[in-house]
C-alpha cells in the first residue's frame, strides 16, 4: 500500500499513540522496544489507522518516562537502534501507516551532552547560556532566583551543586530537576531544534507531536519577574502573550520558522501542539501558518454527560475554523486516567483523590465505564476532524489502581511529596495474550506490574469476541474510512437532553445515549454499527452510540 501525496491527509486522520516502553517487548528485558512495534504492524493495520505517534524513544534515564531526552537524534539502546527505527518506519509506510515522533523542546535531560558541558563550565560561559543559569538570592546566593514553581518539584530552580556543579548558580526546570529548561533566547537552541526536526523528517517521519508547546519562550529579562503559580487558561488569555512562563507571543515566531521547514517536504510535514491553553488560545498554535493542529484536551476532563460533550464539540469546531485547521479529539493519552475508569465514576467524584485512595474512596461501575468509553469513542470518531487513540483504549482497559508504592515510576508522585499517585496506572504494558509471561508483552516480565484481570482484556481474547471493545473499534475504524465526509456536521433535535444526534453531509448519522433511559431512533436511518447491543425497533440503550446511514 503506498502513501498518498495528499497534503491534507492529516485533517481527518486516525492517529494511534504508542507508548513504546509499554507496547511490546521483543527482547525480554521488561521494556517495550522498537522491534516490538515492528513485530505488531499487522495489529496496527487491523485498526485501519492513518498514523501512529510514538512517545519518546530517545536515549533517556527515564526519569520522566523518556520526556527527559539525552540525545534528540538517536534511539535509546534499551529500545533499539536507528537501524531498527528505519526498518520500523519503512514497514509502517509499506502498510500505509504514517508516523509522528514526539519533540520535547522545552527541556532536555541532565544527561544531555550540552547540560553536562554547562554544569562543568563557568558562569556566563557560552555553554551555560544554552540553559537558564542564574545567581541565587540571599546574602550568599542560597535562595532560588525566583518563586517560579515546577510541575514535579516545589521550585523550578535547583542549585547546580546537586548536579555536580562547582559554582554557586541555580538552573531552571519547569519539570523535574533532571529536566533542565533550554534557553530559547539563544539562537543556537533554535537552530539545534531545526536540525532535529530535519533529521527525523529526512528519515521519512511524517509528523511531530510537540511537547509543552506553549512553554519554551520565557520572559528572561532582568530582573526576573515573580510567577508564584502557573496561570490559569483565563489568566493566560488575559495576559495576551505576556505571561512570564507560558504562551508567550515569541513562541509563535518559532513555529512560523518550523512551518517553513515542514513545507519543504512533499507532502509537507505536519505537527500537533500539546499546549495547555484554552480552546480559544489554541487557535494560534493550530494555524496552518504554524503547527497546523493543537490537541483539544477538553474532553479529557469531561464527564459522560451530553451537554458537556456538546459544548466542547461546538467550541472546538468554531476554533478549528478560525485556525484554518481541523480539530482533534481525544479521550485519553499517557498522562490521563483511562476513560473506562473515568466514566465509571460518578461525575461528583474528584478523580485525583479517588486515584490516591487506590480507587477505594467511591465505587467504580466498571461495566458502565467501559460501555460509556466505547460509546464516547464512536462519537468522536464520527465528528469532523482527527481522532487520537491511546494504546489500550481500543481494549477498554481500565486504569491500574493497585501499583505498589515501591514500583511507582512517575515523577509526579516521586518528586512531588508523594501526594498524587500519578500516571503509571495508564502506562502498564499491553496484554497481548490471555495467559503467559506478562500476558504476551514479553518474555522477561513487565516494567510496571500488570493486574491479574489483564488477560481477559488481551488482544487475543478480545479478537475472538465480536462484542468486545476491540472488535467494535476495529469495525468502527474500518467503516470510518469509507464514511469520511466533508468537515461539517449538523445537530438534530432529539427531545431528550441526554441524547446527542448529529449528521455529516453525506448522511452519516451518529446518535449517543448518555442517559439512563432508553431512546428510540426508529425511522432515523439504517443501522451500520453500534458500540453495544441495540434493542428492538430502534431502541438505543443507555451508554450506547449508534451509527446510521440516512438521507437526512
Ligand atoms: C507532557 C508529557 O505528555 C508528559 O508526559 C511529560 O511529563 C511533560 N510534558 C514533560 O515533558
From TrEMBL:
Family: Belongs to the glycosyl hydrolase 13 family.
Highest taxon above the source species: Bacteria
Matches recorded under InterPro entries: GH (IPR017853), GH13_cat_dom (IPR006047), O16G_dom_2 (IPR045857)
Gene3D superfamilies, alphabetized: Glycosidases, Oligo-1,6-glucosidase, Domain 2
PANTHER family on file: ALPHA-AMYLASE FAMILY MEMBER, NEUTRAL AND BASIC AMINO ACID TRANSPORT PROTEIN RBAT
Residue intervals of the Glycosyl hydrolase family 13 catalytic domain: 17-427
Signal peptide: none
GO terms under biological process: maltose catabolic process; sucrose catabolic process
SUPFAM superfamilies (UniProt xref): (Trans)glycosidases
Gene Ontology molecular-function annotations: alpha-amylase activity; glucan 1,4-alpha-maltotriohydrolase activity; oligo-1,6-glucosidase activity; sucrose alpha-glucosidase activity
One Pfam family from the record: Alpha-amylase
Name of the protein described by the UniProt record: Alpha-glucosidase
Ranges that cross the membrane: none
Amino acid at each position: 500500500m503506498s502513501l498518498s501525496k495528499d497534503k491534507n491527509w492529516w485533517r481527518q486522520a486516525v492517529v494511534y499513540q504508542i507508548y513504546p516502553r509499554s507496547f511490546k517487548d521483543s527482547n525480554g528485558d521488561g521494556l517495550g522496544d522498537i522491534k516490538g512495534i515492528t513485530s505488531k504492524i499487522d495489529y496496527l493495520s487491523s485498526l485501519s489507522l492513518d498514523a501512529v505517534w510514538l512517545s519518546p524513544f530517545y536515549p533517556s534515564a527515564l526519569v520522566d518516562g523518556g520526556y527527559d531526552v539525552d540525545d534528540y537524534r538517536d534511539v535509546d539502546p534499551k529500545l533499539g537502534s536507528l537501524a531498527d527505527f528505519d526498518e520500523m518506519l519503512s514497514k509502517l509506510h509499506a502498510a500505509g501507516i504514517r508516523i509522528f515522533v514526539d519533540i520535547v523542546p522545552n527541556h532536555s535531560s541532565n544527561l544531555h551532552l550540552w547540560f553536562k558541558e554547562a554544569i562543568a563550565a563557568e558562569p556566563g560561559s557560552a555553554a551555560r547560556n544554552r540553559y537558564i543559569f542564574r545567581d541565587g538570592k540571599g546574602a550568599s546566593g542560597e535562595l532560588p532566583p525566583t518563586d517560579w514553581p515546577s510541575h514535579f518539584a516545589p521550585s523550578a530552580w535547583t542549585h547546580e551543586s546537586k548536579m555536580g556543579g562547582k559554582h554557586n548558580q541555580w538552573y531552571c526546570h519547569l519539570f523535574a530537576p533532571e529536566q533542565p529548561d533550554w534557553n530559547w533566547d539563544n539562537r543556537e537552541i533554535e537552530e539545534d531544534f531545526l536540525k532535529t526536526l530535519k533529521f527525523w523528517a529526512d528519515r521519512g517521519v511524517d509528523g511531530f507531536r510537540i511537547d509543552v508547546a506553549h512553554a519554551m519562550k520565557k520572559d528572561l529579562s532582568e530582573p526576573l519577574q515573580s510567577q508564584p503559580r502557573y496561570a490559569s487558561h483565563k489568566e493566560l488569555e488575559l495576559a495576551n502573550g505576556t505571561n512570564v512562563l507560558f504562551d508567550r507571543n515569541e513562541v509563535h515566531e518559532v513555529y512560523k520558522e518550523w512551518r517553513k521547514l515542514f513545507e519543504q517536504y512533499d507532502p509537507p510535514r505536519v505537527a500537533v501542539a500539546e499546549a495547555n491553553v484554552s480552546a480559544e488560545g489554541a487557535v494560534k498554535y493550530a494555524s496552518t501558518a504554524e503547527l497546523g493542529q493543537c490537541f483539544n484536551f477538553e474532553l479529557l476532563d469531561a464527564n459522560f454527560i451530553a451537554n458537556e460533550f456538546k459544548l466542547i464539540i461546538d467550541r472546538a469546531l468554531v476554533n478549528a475554523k478560525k485556525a484554518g485547521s481541523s480539530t482533534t479529539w481525544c479521550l485519553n493519552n499517557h498522562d490521563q486516567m483511562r476513560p473506562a475508569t473515568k466514566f465509571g465514576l460518578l461525575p461528583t467524584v474528584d478523580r485525583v483523590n479517588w486515584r490516591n485512595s487506590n480507587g477505594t474512596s467511591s465505587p467504580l461501575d466498571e461495566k458502565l465505564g467501559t460501555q460509556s468509553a466505547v460509546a464516547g469513542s464512536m462519537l468522536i470518531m464520527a465528528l469532523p476532524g482527527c481522532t487520537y487513540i491511546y494504546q489500550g483504549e481500543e481494549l477498554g482497559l481500565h486504569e491500574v489502581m493497585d501499583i505498589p508504592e515501591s514500583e511507582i515510576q512517575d515523577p509526579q508522585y516521586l518528586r512531588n511529596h508523594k501526594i498524587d499517585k500519578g500516571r503509571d496506572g495508564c502506562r502498564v504494558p499491553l496484554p497481548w495474550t490471555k495467559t503467559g509471561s506478562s500476558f504476551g508483552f514479553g518474555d522477561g516480565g513487565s516494567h510496571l506490574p500488570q493486574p491479574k484481570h489483564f488477560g481477559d482484556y488481551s488482544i487475543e481474547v478480545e479478537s475472538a469476541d465480536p462484542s468486545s471493545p476491540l472488535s467494535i473499534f476495529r469495525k468502527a475504524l474500518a467503516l470510518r474510512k469509507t464514511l469520511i465526509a466533508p468537515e461539517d456536521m449538523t445537530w438534530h433535535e432529539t427531545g431528550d437532553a441526554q441524547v446527542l444526534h448529529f449528521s455529516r453531509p453525506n448522511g452519516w448519522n451518529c446518535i449517543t445515549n448518555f442517559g439512563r433511559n432508553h431512546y428510540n431512533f426508529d425511522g432515523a436511518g439504517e443501522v451500520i454499527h453500534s458500540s453495544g447491543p441495540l434493542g428492538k425497533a430502534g431502541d438505543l440503550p443507555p451508554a450506547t452510540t449508534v451509527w446510521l446511514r440516512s438521507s437526512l
